[in-house]
Amino acid sequence: MVVLTQYPIKAVLRSADYTGRVAKWGTILGAFDVKYMPRTSVKGQVLADLVAEFAKGPEEIETSQDGMDEKSVGLISAQPISSWTVYVDGAANQRGSRVGLVLISPEEVIIEKSLRLGFSATNNEAEYEALLMGMAIVNKLGEKTMEIFSDSGLVVGQVRGELKARDTRMQEYLSQVNQISSARSWMDPIIIFLEKDILPEDKSKAKKIRRKAPCFWPSEDKKLYKRSYSGLYLLCVRPEASEDLLEELHEGICGSHTGGRSLSHRTITQGYWWPGMQKKALEYVRKCDQCQRFAPNIHQPGGVLNPLSSPWPFAQWDLDIFGPFPRAVGNKKYLLVGMDYFTKWVEAEPLANIRDVDVKRFLLRNIITRFGVPQTLISDNSLQFDSKAFRRTTPRRSTGETPFSMTYGAEAVIPIETGFPTLRTSNFTLDRNDELLRKSLDLIDERREKAMVQLACYQHKLKQGYDANVKLRPLAPGDLVLRKVLGNTKNPAWGKLGSNWEEPYRITSVAGIRGLLFRRFR
After folding, report:
1. How far apart are the C-alpha atoms of 100 and 375, rounded to whole Å?
2. Which one of 87, 133, 151, 161 has the lowest number of neighbouring Cβ atoms within 10 Å?
3. Is residue 238 part of a domain?
4. Mean pLDDT along residues 89-103
């Protein structure tokens, strides 16, 4: 026998310091194998008390519907069984829109619920929202039969067919109500065939039901079970209750936020089944907020490659800032770099500060005065490049030429050739060299055109290889997205367990190719 207690009963009963009644109790209980253990948690007892409290029958309340102004929307199902009674009401004003629900079960259990709508709505829209919410709650409880009362003559008349819905919003609401009212579960034809031996008139559907029926078994409490290949009977779940079940298994008390495939396997292990459950589980996991925030970083490109090519040398430059590096002479720790898109010529300058005036001076001294005014300057939109003030000898694979030869029409002499002379440095003469340079400059245009053709071919092959690994993620204004948590926005207190994605943002507009403007959703 195990006794759970928070009091030191074991020490009192087994102590020799007590006499009288306490000693007598210790002697009597000592004949039994009693173990005293501390009560570590009361969660189980709280849950048991909660179930016991709600399992009690409600007080009998006599209600009369004679003096009510509400009109019945209609009996949703024509099955001759006891139905739920639902009273709905909605109201809208300048402060917002709210709906109220009163649900009465066949066992006379009364459930009251009031909700606030998260969007602005008219009175009629609030009445429809209340109606749809009441129908959804009853459907989630596994019931199909309900009688709904509403005080809105417009809603009642449109649902009954006495009034015609002319407004577009009212037509959408009415179609949703009709869709829920006429929706039949995949279980209904199978249950009807197993219980009443009735098949649909369509021969193909009847053949499918007859072939599937031996795998199912209806219980006495009107529940359907499926015989699994492991020999267990799995409870068949209706579509409207599947999402609640996945929510409990995925992020409930014992949920572990597993993947879609593991979630479907766990659902089967718990004894539930419905058609397409693996696809449903994958979709639910994809919509889970916590799974999205802590999802691994996406390294696969989300859009096709858009290669940029320059129409002529030194017409298009790319500017960027690197650093900070370890401090050098003059307290310089940043590197400002400009690269020509056509010749791949690089201009760089170390800086102590990265101000807009420094960038302006770099452009004037290193690019404009040497190569002319460029047509395009491409940067990462840093403040230094968007303010009001505003050398190598290796052949490039993209052009097949070195940046020096594309710039000056001849190859450069590397420093090692001055210490270890080669054939061309030994036979060097200044007059002959100047003559060859002038001839090379006359032929440099042809050389650059050939390099441009090779560059276009290289970019085409590069685009093919890049686009083969692209997984398109099309986004449009109005979509909700999460932004990657970067180093400067990450909270140091999170450590390695912090989320990789932050905030829901709503896309407001598209800015150029693969450029989006967004703002915080909340």
Report:
1. 65
2. 161
3. no
4. 87
